[in-house]
Structures are given as structure tokens and as C-alpha cells.
Amino acid sequence: MVLPEQREVRPKEDPNGPARLLVVALVSLGLLARVAPGLMMTPALAARLPSAAAYLDLARSLADGEGFVLTEKADAATEGRSYRARRMPAYPLLVAAGKTVVGAPARATLIAQALGATVSVVLAAWMAHRLAGPWAAVVAAGLLAFDPYQAVLASLFAPVTLTGLALTAVAAAGVAYVGAVRAGRRAWPWAAAGGLALAAAVYLEVWTLALVPPALVAAAVSRRRRRLLVGWALGAAVLGAALVPWLVRNAEQVGAPVLSTNVGRRLWAGTGLRPGEAGLRPGEAGPGAEAPPLPEGLDEVGEGVFYLESAAKRIASAPGRWLGLALGRVGRLWSPALPEGLEDGPLGPAAGYTSLLPTGLLAVAGVWLLRRRGEVWWLLLVPAAATLAHLVLAGWAGDRAAVMPPLAALGGAGLAALLGRPEGGNRS
Fold it and tell me: Could you tell me which of 157, 118, 121 has the C-alpha nearest to residue 34?
């Protein structure tokens, strides 16, 4: 009896296997590109940005057991004054932990930033996969892995890298929430996760609170507005609850439950006007503008209120000029030009173009081609928040780096849509 020839049974090939392998490779390269500069960076070079001195001073104060106290040194108007709520606490706490726990604050902080930036790459690839399939994830990971801004900023003392991670987590939670709502599944855990991630971002930099208003508007105008508004309310409640300890601490320390006493000064700096002058052109004044003389006897909160009132008077006296300055700040935020503090570093003038232009153009394509997907509009909330914050407050143009991961996710989906019909990804 002749037995039938046995057929060789081969395992079923995964059609998405090559794409997954490429994502893993790109994430690994991105990690290497962020860890290597941090390991080679000297503490002096890592502290080259204008804001680094304040964060390092706060970290030293915490590590030395003196509390969260910043003594102003760089501003002639407030030199020698002590502030307890001028900066948000998360980043100084991280640097202080590197000094007290690890014993090497520079290396520990920069390695933490490199890891955080790499997680942002992973989240961006995941969001792109949700929008347009595995090859969109490859493009998103590539756009971030080889972004020179992302690599350099991860090796400098600045909260922008970790702020970007927190904001990317907010965007990822929003994408998951919208998908769960569309599929009719339980979505509230994603709303709570988004609120926690935004609280982490606010503890790093207070301007990220600007994400709340556009998120409310997006929920109110969506087709599934009822569930999205419920999700926004839950996320806002979690955000508020997470910020309560800091508000209570500030009420005890400075006499008022404020997030930061620096908001008034940043608003005043955003007017771009110096005492005795009619005004300056956009770009000629910013956070370092000369401060007005302070009345005697003002405490920290009173100083913040004084700056708020001064800013309101200046804006009311010349609203057109203030609007021009505000638009100039937004233009600098989205300009390929190198932001302050990076001009003399390893980045050349073309770095902004290689960073912003491909990601931005592909993101625009993604928004247009996938405009019927609700996740697309929620991904736009993060860059919208940065734009809104810089429209009102003086800030650092390098904050754009914090909002690039959601744009890279849109860019990956945009290229997948341009090259052919995108795969739907996981729509659950």
C-alpha cells in the first residue's frame, strides 16, 4: 500500500511581520540616538538652555533639604527674591532624585529623558498603526527616531522631552477613547488615563493646561458629543484631583492655591513692551524683557497679580500691537529656525527643516486624507494647545519638540494614505 505523499506544513506567515521588525529597529536606533549624546554630554553643556539654571537651583535646594525654593539671580528687577511656586515641581524633583538616589544627577536625568523620548516614539507608532496600519507605524517611528531636535533636547537639562512624553500619552489615551466609543466598548478608563497623563504634563510645565479648552471644544462639536463630553468631564475631574496636592501646598506656602506665580510675568513678557517705550516689533522682546519696577512690600502672589494687571493694561492700550506680537510668537514656534539656546550647538540651520517640514507636510496630508476619522482631530489637540499657549504667554520656541510625536503619528498615517488605501489598524 502506497501512502500519500505527506505535505510539508509551513507556519502561516505574518504579513505585518516586516513592518513590526522595522518599527523595533527604528525604536532601537532612536534609543541609541538619544542615549549616546546624553552619556557624552558634560554637565555644563547639558545646562546650556536659558531655563536650565532655575531648574538646577531648585533641584539643589531639594537635594540639600532646603525645600522647593528658587532664589532669583538672572533678573535685575527680582534679584535676590525667593520664590516657592514659580516653577512646577516635577522636573526639579527628577534632577534632585538623580543626585540623592543615584549620586549622578546629570547622567540619571539624561538617561531618564532618553528613555522617555523613546517611549514617545513607541506611542506615536502605536497611534499611527491605529489610524492606518503597520506601515504607517514604520513611518511615524522613522520621523521621530531621526529627528535631530528630539535627540539633542533629550541630552539637555529641560523638561520638554518628558513633557512631550506626557502629552503623547494624553493623545494616545484620546485615540483609544475615541476608538472605544465608536466600537461601543467601555471607554472611561482611557479618559481617566488621559487626565492622569495631562496632570503629569502640568506638573512638568504649566502651559500644557492649555490642552483643556480645545479638548472641550472638540468634544462639543463631535458627532458623538454626549460620550465625548462625559469623557472630557471625567478626564478633567481626574486632572483636578491630581493637582490638588500642589494647590494645597501652595496655599500653605505662598498664601493662595495657585499652580504657578509665574503666569502673570509670562503674560506681561508676552506684551513685548518695556517701560518708557511705545513698543517693539515681534521677536524683539520675550521672557527676558526688562521688568517694570515692583511696588514695595509685594509677596510672591502679589507680584504675580501685579504682572497680570500690568499686562492687562498694556494689552488694552495697544491690542493690535499685542496681537502682532502674539502671532509672531506662534510663527517662531512653528518656524524651522533654531530656538534660543541651540544656535551654537551641534544642530545646524538646516536641522529645523529636516525636523519640521517632512513631519508637518505629511501630517497635513494625513489630516486631509483621514479627516473622517475622529482620532485625527484628537491628535491635533496637542499642537493646538501649544499654539494657544504661545499665543497668550511668552514661551520658548523649543516647546514645539513636545508636540512632535502626535504630528509624527499623523505624518505616518498621511504617507500610508498617499501611497495607497490605508489599512484601518485596530479600530476597537
Answer: 118
